[in-house]
Specification:
Elements lengths: L16 H5 L12 H7 L6 H12 L1 H6 L2 H8 L3 H10 L5 H16 L2 H4 L8 H18 L2 H11 L6 E5 L4 H14 L3 E3 L4 H9 L6 E5 L6 H12 L3 E6 L5 H5 L2 E4 L12 H17 L1 H17 L10
Parallel strand pairs: 1-2, 1-3, 3-4, 4-5
Helix pairs in contact: 3-5, 3-6, 5-6, 9-15, 10-15, 11-15, 12-13
Length: 313
């Protein structure tokens, strides 16, 4: 990888024009996704600016390689509205907005094999700061109404629950499923072979609640499974790291999780913290029935000495 973050093609061949365009120069704002700026300014946008914002979120690649006129035409507004939105979002004109979209697209496509070269410090303090920031950003950014809607559905014992997750977040997803399963019935993780996944989706109750979890460089099967859920009219909540995500586009409610890491791999601590909060709220809502269910589980463990605090000999 070269110093400015571009990727050299295999065998030392020249980068494509698209690759070179992605690294022309840095944008002038602090590193923060364009989509996140749009979300934070959403309430102050005019109707024309909102149409421009929606066009950006719908087709960021077109913005990264298009002109002001292209974006204005896609949003059915005048060029002035495009420039006004860029300024309102804190960019130094359209070209600055465009460069930042390019930067965001570049970050989405870079694998851990490249990011490992950027690891500048393995200090514990850096790691602590990054993970605490992930938790705070994820929980602070979670919309109360969206959490309430998700918790209400997960607390409805008549609705089955299905969880779909990419491999990187599978451990967090299974922890969440385990927590829910201890306080309510009919909780399932959908994964496995194509045959198994399509079978489970085909028989999934249309009144079910589905939680979909994956970050950028999405697994194709996760997106395909979510598409099937969406096409069947089944309600879903998405946990992902960008409103540009196809998961966000197909979900009824979306939670953005911060996944920054000082190392080559995405962090899932923010995702875990959010799901722990949701599980707590569901347990509180189902306190009476959940208490009895937990008691039965504890009795089964106790009667069979399944758990121990003693050192094994």
């Amino acid at each position: 990888m070269n110093d400015n973050g571009g990727r050299q093609r295999a065998g030392g061949r020249m980068r494509s024009a698209a690759d070179r365009l992605l690294i022309v120069r840095p944008c002038t704002v602090a590193p923060m996704e364009v989509a996140e700026r749009i979300r934070s300014h959403g309430a102050s946008l005019t109707s024309a600016e909102r149409r421009v914002a929606e066009a950006i979120l719908a087709a960021p690649q077109a913005v990264g390689f298009g002109t002001v006129a292209d974006l204005a035409r896609a949003a059915d507004v005048g060029a002035a509205s495009v420039v006004r939105l860029a300024t309102k979002l804190g960019f130094d004109g359209y070209s600055d907005l465009q460069h930042c979209v390019q930067r965001d697209l570049t970050r989405q496509l870079r694998p851990a094999a490249e990011r490992i070269h950027e690891t500048v410090s393995g200090a514990r303090s850096d790691h602590i700061a990054a993970e605490l920031a992930n938790v705070r950003a994820t929980l602070d950014g979670a919309d109360d109404r969206a959490i309430g809607e998700l918790v209400t559905r997960l607390s409805d014992l008549a609705r089955p629950v299905a969880i779909i997750s990419g491999d990187a977040s599978a451990g967090v997803a299974r922890q969440f499923a385990s927590q829910l399963h201890q306080i309510r019935s009919d909780v399932h993780v959908i994964d496995g072979s194509d045959v198994v996944v399509r079978r489970d989706l085909a028989v999934l109750d249309v009144d079910a609640t589905v939680v979909v979890i994956d970050l950028r460089r999405y697994e194709r099967w996760v997106l395909e499974a979510h598409r099937i859920v969406h096409d069947r009219g089944i309600w879903s909540a998405g946990l992902t790291d960008s409103v540009l995500s196809p998961i966000a586009a197909a979900a009824e409610v979306t939670f953005l999780v911060a996944a920054h890491s000082v190392g080559p791999f995405d962090s899932h601590v923010g995702t875990l913290a959010l799901l722990n909060l949701v599980a707590l709220d569901v347990a509180t809502t189902l306190r009476q029935s959940a208490t009895e269910r937990l008691r039965v589980v504890e009795v089964a463990w106790s009667d069979n000495s399944s758990l121990t605090d003693a050192h094994l000999t």
